[in-house]
Amino acid sequence: MYPGSADVTIEGAFLPMDERQHALEGGIYTNAHELYFDVGDDLRVSDKVVIDSTTYFVKKVFSASFGGLRHKRASLSTES
Question: What is the model's pLDDT at position 4?
Answer without folding.
Answer: 62
